[in-house]
């Protein structure tokens, strides 16, 4: 079997593009409609996607508070995915959750529960939740510094993994005759005492079906890359062109190798926002139609929201350039990325938000079925991507286009599965099930005897 | 329409009785089987129960760590209920969550999400999570003092309610033509600054379908009663006899009245563990059969676990009396209740755990269909109960018995519904939808103009 493209689907009910909710075929209440999310999950499963992915924010900040922002309110991702899991059978669910504002015990527990009830289809996208607006919902005035957030994240992830391992896979006996339900020698305290957390354990949920839910990361800063290389199994990333994606791909794979991990077990999946038509012209008209729906104040608010409130453009002329940067402790990687796009294209503020509105810094592909498939194939074959996180700009139309038009073309080229390979998210992604260190050390002792 | 009995179903997959998992017809892995919980939910809905209720614990402590404890691991309740919601249409879901170890923003968000995706069927059982074993999973050595936990709980509940109210019901416009998605004048910061929390808001989930998920409480201590009278709409409680239940009922209703609330909008639902037979003899043999399955060490561990680890009976003879109490900061009400039972009956340790194993301090009814219905009717007609939280001692058998035998008898007597009255949990319980204070004050201003 040759290597195949892996695919995530980023499907917030309100759509990816800032004006997606205004699209004639989009439900205006998609962001808060459970029925619509159910339909999206079922379409993604029909398209044989590996996973449904949702970002998350712990405040109304994302995209600004202006009246046109359809992303201002929605579902908490783990709760939503739990509800979608029994309505699907193979699709994975990658939920975003914060290491800065959640406790390891609580987080380990809800992801272990999601993995258990979905029969091994859970993934955790680890984020550190930038922005003072979020901090103010959690007893703080300002967010912790960037480096401190990442230091805490590393300790958090290790603690969560230790909690998932606190039960060995064979700890449960459940012998009705003897009355022994579990083997106390196969359940272990965690006894973590670190700089940020102190957690005794064990967890009160069995070891997840997958061993660990799949650990996902998306940081692009130096701190983010370091965390990803040390802990992540899937990395979402945003690049505007092949060479930038290749630089990132090679850098991460080298870091992973240096960390003593197998680079094949860390999948790099850049985001792609596809506008697909039967012809290039049809695709281009879909692209323009959506951009025409952006309300200018919403566009400006989007730029600020995307950078965690560190890029306030109020008062600057829309048809002038981006003002000079101030150093902040906000979302460093996002602000740098946005400035790079503006510089490369010589964009005004208006042109910039139109560009960003589509894909928020991810790669926008506008073209015929063959052209879109060509782009994906080029990135996949040239060390830029192990797969892609597909961000349909509006819903359900752009997802339907991808599933009905692009997926069959990728299959024809032998680049994508024609049926799910496995039962769990991990099996479909081709990632190994983590061994339990407690079980491993018991095996080592027995082997030595 | 005359007043009807309200019914909750307490259905942990492992059963209520400590030896429930050893029952021949119980699945040994019920506690961690999603399919089994789905079956229980569907049976409860067939029985027209108001709600499925689950307790919760933030450590493996409950019931002890001995090898016979089937309750040592299970699902996180909100995650589980989210998955069950789309598989049912009328059944409510009351999940327990902690004010001591969760943040108001996170908690408000997940319950609002559960309410949204279930179309208004969520309830929150407010607990303060006793026990040092739990504290040690959350960066502490010992738990906060009893009074401090309750003080924090009160501030927590108020903050959560304010977050649920941060969006007015009609805040969403979603006008595709103008691009206005919401009315910024109808979304409000919370700006809470208290002793325990500081939360800016607004929440990033719309106001729940029910206004607020139904707020449930179960504290029986003085602090617990005060909190319940101030904030709860449903109160779960444990009583061994009619007069004790009446005392509690009258005390709470009087406190509610003094707090300026309508006593009819606070439902008191004692726990009842029913062993039902076609004859009394059949019921009694079901009772004895289950008690014969208890492993002694598990019985002793149960008593300690129930009191948050404050009743360590290791080394005391099983056929001797309960040793004298030490004052603790643990679960005051639970320890007092357990001692009272031992005193009243003159129980040895063994007799005590056998008694407790069945219902953990709740009322055990063993009898024919008519006898069980008589007991419920007596309590309901004599100011002891507005309804009951039914705790089937083993599953699925004792739930099936109740649904197939007792429910029809209660319906024949006109004491229980024959179809769901409403669409939401609140409507079925006969509780009003809370008004939004922001909308109310706007109405008052308009009326004055």
UniProtKB/TrEMBL annotation, chains A, B:
Q: Which UniProt keywords apply?
A: Flavoprotein, FMN, Monooxygenase, Oxidoreductase
> Which portions of the sequence form the region Disordered?
428-449
Q: Which Pfam families match?
A: Bac_luciferase
**In the Enzyme Commission scheme, what number(s) does this protein have?**
1.14.-.-
Segments forming domain Luciferase-like: 19-379
Which residues hold FMN?
56, 96, 146, 150, 221
Q: Which Gene3D superfamilies match?
A: Luciferase-like domain
Classify the source by domain of life.
Bacteria
One Gene Ontology MF term: oxidoreductase activity, acting on paired donors, with incorporation or reduction of molecular oxygen
Q: Enumerate the CDD domains for this protein.
A: Nitrilotriacetate_monoxgenase
Q: What class of enzyme is it?
A: oxidoreductase
Output the InterPro entries linked to this UniProt entry: Diverse_substr_monoxygenases (IPR051260), Luciferase-like_dom (IPR011251), Luciferase-like_sf (IPR036661), NTA_MOA (IPR016215)
Instruction: Give the protein family.
Output: Belongs to the NtaA/SnaA/DszA monooxygenase family.
In terms of PANTHER family, this protein maps to: ALKANESULFONATE MONOOXYGENASE-RELATED, C2H2 FINGER DOMAIN TRANSCRIPTION FACTOR (EUROFUNG)-RELATED
Q: What is the name of the protein in this document?
A: NtaA/DmoA family FMN-dependent monooxygenase
């Amino acid at each position: 079997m040759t290597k195949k493209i892996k695919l995530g689907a980023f499907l917030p009910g309100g759509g990816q593009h800032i004006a997606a909710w205004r699209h004639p075929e989009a439900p205006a209440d998609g962001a808060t409609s459970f029925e619509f999310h159910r339909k999206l999950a079922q379409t993604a499963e029909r398209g044989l996607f590996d996973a449904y992915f949702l970002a998350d924010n712990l405040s109304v900040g994302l995209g600004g508070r202006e009246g046109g922002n359809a992303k201002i309110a929605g579902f908490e991702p783990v709760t939503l995915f739990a509800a979608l899991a029994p309505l699907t059978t193979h699709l994975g669910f990658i939920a975003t959750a914060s290491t800065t504002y959640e406790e390891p015990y609580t987080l380990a527990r809800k992801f272990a529960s999601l993995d258990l009830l979905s029969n091994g289809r859970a993934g955790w996208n680890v984020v550190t939740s930038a922005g003072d607006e979020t901090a103010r919902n959690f007893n703080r005035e300002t967010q912790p510094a960037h480096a401190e957030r990442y230091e805490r994240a590393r300790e958090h992830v290790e603690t969560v993994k230790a909690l998932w391992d606190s039960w060995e896979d064979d700890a449960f006996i459940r012998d009705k005759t003897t009355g022994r339900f579990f083997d106390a020698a196969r359940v272990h305290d965690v006894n973590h005492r670190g700089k940020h957390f102190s957690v005794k354990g064990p967890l009160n949920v069995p070891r997840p079906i997958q061993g660990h839910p799949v650990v996902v990361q998306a940081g692009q800063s130096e701190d983010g890359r370091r965390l990803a290389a040390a802990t992540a199994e899937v990395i979402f990333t945003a690049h505007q062109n092949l060479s930038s994606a290749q630089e990132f791909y090679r850098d991460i794979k080298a870091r992973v190798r240096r960390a003593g991990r197998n680079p094949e077990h860390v999948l790099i999946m850049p985001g792609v926002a596809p506008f697909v038509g039967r012809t290039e012209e049809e695709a281009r008209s879909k692209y323009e139609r959506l951009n025409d729906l952006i309300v200018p104040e919403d566009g400006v608010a989007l730029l600020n929201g995307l950078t965690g409130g560190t890029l306030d453009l109020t008062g600057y002329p829309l048809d002038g350039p981006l003002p000079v940067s101030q150093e902040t402790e906000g979302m460093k990687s996002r602000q740098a990325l946005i400035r790079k796009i503006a510089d490369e294209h010589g964009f005004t503020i208006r042109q910039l938000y139109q560009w960003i509105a589509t894909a928020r810094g991810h790669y926008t592909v506008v073209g015929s079925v063959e052209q879109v498939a060509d782009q994906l194939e080029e990135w996949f074959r040239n060390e830029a991507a192990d797969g892609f996180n597909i961000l349909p700009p509006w819903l359900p139309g752009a997802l339907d286009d991808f599933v009905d038009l692009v997926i069959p073309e990728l299959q024809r080229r032998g680049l994508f599965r024609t049926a799910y390979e496995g039962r769990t998210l991990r099996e479909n992604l081709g990632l190994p099930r983590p061994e339990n260190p407690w079980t491993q050390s018991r095996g080592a002792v027995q082997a030595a005897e």
